[in-house]
Fold:
Amino acid sequence: MEPLSDPDVQLMLALQQGDLSAFDQLFRKHISGVVRFATRFVRSQARAEELAQDVFLRLFKTRATYTPKARFKTWLFRMVHNACLSELRSGDHRRRTDLAGGGADPAAAIEAALPPVASAESAWLDSEAIEHLRLAVASLPEQQRAALLLARSEGLSYEEVATTLGCSVSAVKSLIHRATVTLGVRLSDARGES
Amino acid sequence: MTRCDRHQENITALADGALGILATLRLHLHLASCRVCAAVADARRSAVAVQRNVLSAPVEVDCERMLAEARRAIAALGEPTPFPFLRAADRRGATPWNWAVLAGVGGAAATAGLFAWLVSPSTVLVPLGLGAPPAVVASKPELFRDYEIIRELDALEHFDSVNRVRLEDSRPAATKQRRRT
Structure:
């Protein structure tokens, strides 16, 4: 897909020309996806919302240097992913996570931090299985989690995931495959335990 | 690595709809001949569908509150500037290009001011027909119109006497004395 044929790229270019309403449109369109990705990544919706604000503020600040090389969503999620990684690697985040979970049970802390699933589509799924799946995703290695969430949660193609993560398509294929297999194993284990 | 192991990543990619045409054909050929991989492919397809459903479930976000906060944060930045030509400066962090333009405009304005101060406006404006001539010129315009011709004629009339004087002045002193004697 040509970047210029992406309507979001056009909005970003309009913002570059000083059209502030374009910022509002981009914000309304993508904030939910950005918060969802960040929540699943940093395991806290409150922190995810702060990160999303930071990302959109950075988007505004860097609008003048924006050059459309890829789909807008790819560019946006690259910023989101970088912000999430910085957050996870900061001591501040570790301190907060420890406080939230009391340091005793990390799984319970993750579960407490994750937002409730609000999809009618997933209502048919066993709620326990959903929780297990979300916990399993939260405990995946960072790169696997990022690749899986970008592809399965945000609907990016493997090529777009590769662009976002700054790696090759074959690496993305491998990351997503390993994540899928790991999730399958953990869900089987959880079913066996229950 | 067995023949089936080679296809595992492609089975996942197929479930994601991310496999190329040729690879898809190769994989389908394998699945047609391998029951184990066909079963794995079925299981993975449903697992991927479940993951998509669960992971793409929307998160409740108060969009308008967050947008209001974002607007406040942007307003705190002090942007956008009301001067459009300065917008390029904050674009690249006050690039030399913009300062050069500003310096050029400032220099041109200073030169124009100096020129206006040195040269009387009538000198420039009257020949251009943009200003009224002084009263003397207005009373006898033909004199000023023909001023150049009159000056030339004057010069021709006094040519001989002027040159004679110059020639005499330039003769050596000895010659002048001989003539006197």
In short: Chain B touches chain A through 39 residues (CB under 8 Å). DSSP finds twelve helices and no strands in chain B. Confidence is low (pLDDT under 50) at residues 81-94 of chain B. The CA atoms of residues 51 and 144 of chain B lie 97 Å apart.
